[in-house]
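Notes from the pairing session

We agreed to fold both candidates in a single pass and log them together. This is the raw record for the first candidate, unedited. Please don't reformat it; downstream parsing expects exactly this layout.

Candidate A
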Amino acid sequence: MALLMEKGTEPQTESELADLDAISALKESAAIELKEEGNKYVKMGKKHYSEAIKCYTRAINQKALSDTETSILFSNRAHVNLLLGNYGRALSDSEEAIKLSPANVKAFYRAAKASLSLNKLVEAKAFSEKGLDQNPDNEELKTLKKQIDSQISELQQREAQVSKALKTAKDLVSAIEDRELKIGQATFQKLSGLKKPILDKDHILHWPVLLLYAEVMSSDFIEDFCETDMFSAHLGLISFSHSAEPLPWDKENAYTRDAIELYYEAGSGVCLSKKEIISNFLQGTVASHLETFGDDETDTVKSFPKGISSVGNNRSKWVKVNERRTLNAVLKEPNFVIPGIPVFFVVSKRSSFYKDFKSGNWSLPS
C-alpha cells in the first residue's frame, strides 16, 4: 500500500499509484473544505477570525492545491490578519501569495494595505502600482494608491520642513561660532518662551533681548535687536523714554531715561556644546524630535571658558553696559555667557535699590 511506502521512493505498482491518487484527492478535497469553512468563519465576524486563520493554515499545510489556489489561501489569511491588525503577518502572507500567483490582484491590494499600515510607504506604492498593472480598472487599488501617494507627499513636505529647520539652526550656530559668542542654558525661558535669534540674508544676527528690572523682577522685551545697533537706539523707544508714562510700579518715578543703567551678569552658566545649542534652537519647530544632527553629533560639551567664573561668596558680578556700544560688541565680552538669549538688568541711579545692587548685596531669586 502507498501508505507503507518509504519516503522518497517511487510507486512501483498500479495499486500504489491508485493509492497515491486517492490520497491526493482526499487532501485536495480536505483543503477545499477547509478553505470554504474558513470563508464561513470570516463572514461570522471578528469572534471567529482566529478559527478562520486555523482553517486556512490547515488548508495550506495539505499542500494539495495548485499554486493559484494556494495563492488564494495565503491571500485570504492575509485578509483576516489585516482585519485583526496583524500587519506584519498580513504582509508576509500577501507576499507569499504573490510569489505563487503574480496575477493575484487581491494579494497586491492586501500587501499594499499592510505595508501602508506598517508605514512602509515605498513598498506600499510599489505593491499598488504592480496590482494596477494587473488590473488597471480596480477601484479599490486606485483609491488605495491615492491614499498612499497623499501620505508620501505629506511625508516629503514634512521632511523638507525638518531639513529647513535643521539648516536654519545650524546656520545660526555657525554665525555664533564665527562671532566667538558663548551660549549657556536658557535661564529665563518662562519669560522669553522659545524666542531665538534670526540670521538675515546679509548674515546679520537679530536677537530678542530681555530687559529685567532687577528691583522688582519685572520685564520688557526688545523683539528685534540687530547686533549692529547701539543700546542707546533702543532704550529711547521703550517705557522709560522721555515721553512715556512712568512704569506702574515706579512710584518714585526713578526710572527715567537719564537715570537708568544696564548691566549683565558675568561668569554665569556653563557654555553649551554645538549639539546642545542646535537642539535648543530646534525647540518649537517641526524638527524638535531630532536627536542627531549629522556631522555635529560628535561635538561634546565644552568646558567652562577659562577666566570665567562666579564671584566669591555666591555673589554675581554685574558689568555695566556702555550704551554707545553695539549689541555684538557687548555679547563678545569674554565673561558674557548668553543665557539662551541676551538678558540685561535695568537699574536706576535714583532708586534706593541702586546701592544694594552695586555693592553686590543683591542676587537673582532662586
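Candidate B (folded immediately after A)
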Amino acid sequence: MKAKAVKIADGVYWVGVIHWHSRTFHGYGIPGTTYNAYLVFGEEKTVLIDNVYRGMFEQFDARVKDAFEQEGKEFKIDVFVQNHSEMDHSTFLRQTIEEYNPDAEIYASQNCINFLEAQYHNFSDLEINAVATGDELDIGGRTLKFISAPMLHWPDSMFTLLAEEGILFSNDAFGQHVAHSKRFDEDYDTQYLLREAQKYYANLVTLGSPMLRMKLDELTNTGLINDIKMIAPCHGQIWKNPAPIVEKYSEWGSGVCKDKITVIYDTMHHSTEKLAYQIAEGIMSEGVEVVMYFMQEDGPDDVITDILDSKAIALGAPTMMNKPFPRIGNMMYWLDCVNFKGTGSEKNALIFSSKGWGGGAVAKLQNDLEAAGFTVTDTLDVLFVPDEDVMAEAFEKGAELARSIKE
C-alpha cells in the first residue's frame, strides 16, 4: 500500500490512519475517525509517538516510511513514546518495535506499562522506561517533555510536549471522531469541529472533568499553557489554533452551561409524547432553548452531548409492568456512566410519565437520576391520556423548570 505522511511542522509528520467506514466507537455513533500517530525527527533520534488500531497497519506503515523518504533519511526509529495503552492507539506497538527497531528506547507512564501487559500479555520482556511530569528526553536539538494526564481519559494517559515547537501530543484529550482528507482545524468550520469535540468530551471525558480542571490549572500555573502552539490529538483534526478547544475544555470541565434544557422521552401510545411536547412549549415560553430527543429514533450519545451544556433536563417514559418503559434504560445507564456532577454542574430534572393504573416509572427514574447526579425538582405522573387540564399543568411545569435555571 502507498500512503503519504503529512508534514505538520519542520521534521514532524502525521503518520496516522483514516478509518473512513467506522460507524461506532466506545458504543456511540460516529461518521468515521482517525487514529493519529506522529513521527518526530531530532538531530540524534527519531521518535514515533503512539500507534494505530487493528486492521490499519498497512496504511500506517506506508505513511511512516513515506515520512522518512520526505526527510531523505535512512529508515530507523530510535524511540517509541506511548501516551496511552488503549487498543486503538497500541494494537501494533509490539509489531512495530520488532520490525522497526527491537533495540529502540520505549517510554510510557507506569500505568501504561502495566496496562499494555494486561491487554496483550507480551510486553513484560521489554525494557520500558516509566516517565511522569517533569521527565524530559533530548532527541538532539529537540526536547520531549512528558506530562502525566490521568483520567484524560484513562488512568495511564499522558501528554508529550515537543518543547521547541510547542506541539502538544495530547492523545485522546482534545480529539474528535471525524474522518476527513485534510488534517488541520483550519481546513474545516470551527463550530462544526467544536460540536464534534463536544460529543467526544461528553461521552468520553466527562468522568475525568475533575482531573481536567487540575491539569489545566497545572499547565497554567507552570506557564506551559502559553508554550502550546499546536495540539495534535490521537483522533480527528490537529488544532493549529488551540485556543478555541482549550477554552471549550475549560468550560465543559467546569460545568459552564447555556440557558438550555434537553427534553428526552420515549412513548408507547403517544401520551408521554404529548407531555414532552407540552413541557417543551412551557420551557420555550420562558425564552429558554430546548433540544428534544425521542429514544425510539435517537441515540444516547447525541443526548449526552446536549446535556453537557444544558442546565436541566426533562425526562419522560411511560410505565410498563410497574417500571419505566425499557427502551429508556440504555439512556439511564449512559447518564450514570458519565455522571455530569463531576463537571461541577448542578443540573435540575423534571420527570414525567403516563401510566395505565399503578404506575412505578417515576419513582425508578427519580432514583436513577439522583444516583447519576441530577437534582429532581418536580415530577408529573399522568393516568392514561392527558386531558386539557393535564396539558396545561405540563406546560406550567415546563415553564417552572425554565425559570429554575435562570434563578
